[in-house]
Design goal:
Length: 137
């Protein structure tokens, strides 16, 4: 993400993004084709704006990404670095804490990326080593 995109988000949502978010997005720690970039810590401006439709300006919250399902990850624009879960289905996790710190959130995304990469490697190995009669793999 570049500074002009961040400025565009701030202008369209009429908010000031937290410094820790801006620094992370300008020096993005995940590959461009990662799960994090697509969903959890979204880099697509349109998707970011779409995710933020759930909040009213008075709520002073900013959606940073989603899990691809019913959860949106968001931060409050009051200076704290906690990352919260907004649940569309309003389950027991609605507005619960996903991570106590921004660094903790980034760390959990790193662990998810590692796990997804391991799964992909295992799947490739499984396909390479399948038996001739295993057509479903």
């Amino acid at each position: 993400m570049v500074l002009s995109e961040i400025d565009s988000i701030e202008r369209q949502l009429k908010i000031k993004l937290p410094d820790y978010y801006v620094k992370t997005m300008l020096d993005y720690p995940f590959p461009a084709d990662s799960f994090a970039a697509e969903l959890s810590l979204c880099t697509n401006v349109k998707s970011i704006l779409d995710n933020n439709c759930v909040f009213q300006p008075a709520e002073r919250s900013f959606a940073v990404g989603s899990d691809g399902g019913e959860f949106i990850y968001y931060v409050k624009l009051d200076g704290e670095e906690k990352v919260y879960i907004y649940d569309f289905e309003r389950s027991h996790v609605h507005n619960s804490v996903e991570a106590d710190t921004w660094a903790g959130f980034l760390h959990s995304l790193s662990l998810q990326e590692e796990e997804l990469n391991k799964d992909e490697l295992l799947e490739e190995k499984r396909k390479r080593n399948k038996k001739w009669w295993q057509f479903w793999i």
